[in-house]
Amino acid sequence: QLQLQESGPGLVKPSETLSLTCTVSGGSISGSSYYWGWIRQSPGKGLEWIGNVYYSGKAYYNPSLNSRVTISVDTAKNVFSLKLNSVTAADTAVYYCARPHPAYCSGSTCPFGFWGQGLLVTVSS
Amino acid sequence: YELTQPPSVSVSPGQTARITCSGDALAKEYVYWYQQKTGQAPVVLIYKDNERASGIPERFSGSSSGPKVTLTISGVQAEDEGEYHCQSADSSTMYPVFGGGTKLTVL
User: Fold this and answer.
1) Residue A69 pLDDT > 80
2) B20 and B70 in contact (C-beta within 8 Å)?
């Protein structure tokens, strides 16, 4: 069974860079034709898609965050990472890494069927 | 592009809960529904508008009508309390888009 686990600092200072890593087990990033994604959820709010990355390194980002976000992949370590720069209090959220479930996909659209447990990141001085 | 959900829905046990999700592209793109319990990651309930995911009880169903889709929970149980999220795609980019989430309270 595919498992994902987020890791990184739980506290980031304003204007600094938020850096998180998602470790994948039970499957290989390079062996999957599906994308690997980051989603966040601000306190009391809905889910917000941040971006996706393929094993090739090709990444796609939410236009509202595009100028501040970078998602990369390290297939040798079987991890993918998120960097969000110039953070503010509005970036305080639970950050999830996730991947689509192949059985539920239709064409190019998929729900995220495999999720990490989530990591709360607070932006505060 | 946005998907609109009601912030909250309240029902008594045994009643039927209906949670809507609306957006211009929903007439063209599939919708997926998630259930999220407090402190947990979301779980897929419904895919491709009305298909139940593996292990999901039959009381959960999905339907669509043009730009609005509905998640129906028949015979609501206390364990159904939580947050429900819809997801679709921006038809111009195919990027994932989520609704704002609906908190279901079982009275």
Assistant:
1) yes
2) yes
